[in-house]
Amino acid sequence: xxxxxxxxxxxxxxxxxxxxxxxxxxxxxxxxxxxxxxxxxxxxxxxxxxxxxxxxxxxxxxxxxxxxxxxxxxxxxxxxxxxxxxxxxxxxxxx
Length: 95
Hints:
alpha+beta, HU Protein, Chain A, 3-stranded antiparallel sheet, two-stranded antiparallel sheet, 3 helices, 28% strand, elongated
């Protein structure tokens, strides 16, 4: 699903609101989530899941093609955990 598709679906379900207003609201929500993650705060959306930032340590590895040792610097990654109410339908279980 693209952002445009999300805007279209929300516009359909919320009669009386302009598409540009819903688009602006979605932009504000996504910007807020982005800012929280940049500040390394956990974002929890009940019934959907939670996003958090995890730190990966620096490590060294070998290039399988050349055998050269490469150093990979430490970095941050985004981690998503599904809520139980999302996990059950995806697993084919009833709610």
